[in-house]
Write a structure and sequence with these properties.
Elements (H helix, E strand, L loop, with lengths): L1 E8 L7 H10 L4 E5 L10 H5 L5 E5 L7 E5 L3 E5 L11 E6 L4 E6 L13 H19 L5 E6 L23 H13 L2 E3 H5 L8 E2 L6 H4 L2 E2 L2 E6 L6 E6 L15 E6 L1
Parallel strand pairs: 1-2, 7-8
Antiparallel strand pairs: 1-14, 2-4, 3-4, 5-6, 6-7, 8-12, 9-12, 10-11, 13-14
The protein binds one DNA strand of 15 nucleotides through loops.
DNA sequence: ATGGTAGGTCTCCTA
C-alpha cells in the first residue's frame, strides 16, 4: 500500500481550516501533520475535516500558541505527547497507524532573535529542546518511524536564500545546525526531502514581512520529513508546495509532502 | 542600521 503524508505549519488551524480542506482536496494526502494550530484540542475544527474523509485526530493543543495535530483518513493510536525541555508548550505528538508506522510531529521552538544562550533565554530553550530530542532518540531507537514538523532550522546552505548572510541569523547558525544534526544521528534518521531533492535551493517558509515574498524569494527550509533508516528506502516522491504561499491569506509556511510504499 | 507583517489571550506576546 501507499501512504501519502504531509506536514504544514498552518499558523492558526481555525482561521485556515478552509485552506487545509483545499490542500486535502487538491492533493492525494492520507495523513497531515499540522503545527502552530493555536487552538485548544476541544476547539479543533475536526468536523470540517471529517466531512472530507479525515475523521481521525490526535492533537496536543494550548490556547493561542503552539499546538500540533495529526489528521488522518486512517485510525491513529496516540503514542505520546512529550514536553521536551519542560517548557509546558504543546510542541510534540506521536501516533501509530494500524500498519505499525509511528509518526512524530514536532514544532521546535523558534528561538528568538539573538543567537546567544546567555543573552537570550528563548535561544537557550531551543538548544535544550533539541538536546532532549537527541537524548530521547538515543534511548528510544526509531523503527518504522517518520519524524516531521517545523524544526525551525534550515541546516544546509541550499536551505536558505543566502548562506553567508544567514550565518548569524537564528535558524541557520552553526550551533543550531550541530544540535539538529545530533538529533538526526541519534535516531539514525534520513532527511527524506534531501534524499529526493539533493542539490537545488529549497524553501518551505517565506516571511510575512517581505514586500513581495516570491520575487525577493528570501526563503528558508524550516519544515522537514525524516524517516528511520529501516524504511527510508520505501519513502520518496518528495515535494514542497511553493504555490500554497500565494493562496489567499496564506500561512507563512507551505506543505511538505512525501510518499511511503510498504 | 532599521523595520517590515500576521495571529491571538489583542494596547502585548509570539513568530
Amino acid at each position: 500500500m501507499t501512504l501519502n503524508i504531509a506536514t504544514w505549519n498552518i499558523n492558526s488551524v481555525r482561521l485556515r481550516a478552509d485552506l487545509v480542506c483545499k490542500l486535502l482536496k487538491n492533493e492525494d494526502i492520507d495523513l497531515l501533520c499540522l503545527q502552530e494550530c493555536k487552538s485548544p484540542v476541544e476547539k479543533f475544527p475536526l468536523d470540517v475535516f471529517s466531512k472530507i474523509g479525515f475523521s481521525h485526530l490526535v492533537a496536543c493543543g494550548q490556547k493561542g500558541y503552539n499546538g500540533v495535530a495529526i489528521v488522518s483518513k486512517f485510525p491513529l493510536l496516540e503514542k505520546c505527547a512529550i514536553d521536551f525541555a519542560g517548557l509546558g508548550h504543546a510542541r510534540h505528538i506521536a501516533a501509530q497507524l494500524e500498519n505499525g508506522i509511528t509518526i512524530h510531529n514536532f514544532y521546535v521552538p523558534a528561538g528568538g532573535d539573538e543567537p546567544d544562550r546567555q543573552k537570550n533565554e528563548k535561544f537557550d530553550q531551543k538548544l535544550n529542546y533539541l538536546t532532549e530530542m537527541r537524548d530521547y532518540f538515543n534511548a528510544n531507537e526509531p523503527k518504522k518511524s517518520i519524524l516531521v514538523g517545523d524544526l525551525n532550522i534550515a541546516p544546509r546552505p541550499e536551505d536558505v536564500w543566502d548562506h553567508k548572510k544567514m550565518a548569524k541569523i537564528v535558524s541557520h547558525t552553526e550551533v543550531e545546525i550541530d544540535h539538529l544534526d545530533a538529533v538526526l544521528r541519534a535516531g539514525n534518521w534520513v532527511d527524506v526531502t534531501r534524499k529526493d531533492i539533493p542539490q537545488q535551493k529549497l524553501y518551505s517558509w517565506w516571511s510575512y514581512r517581505a514586500k513581495d515574498w516570491s520575487s525577493s524569494d528570501r526563503g528558508r527550509r524550516l519544515d522537514h520529513i525524516w524517516a528511520s533508516a529501516d524504511i527510508a528506502l520505501n519513502i520518496g516522491s518528495s515535494r514542497i508546495l511553493r504555490e500554497v504561499r500565494g493562496w489567499d491569506r496564506p500561512s507563512d509556511h507551505v506543505p511538505v509532502l512525501a510518499t511511503i510504499d510498504l
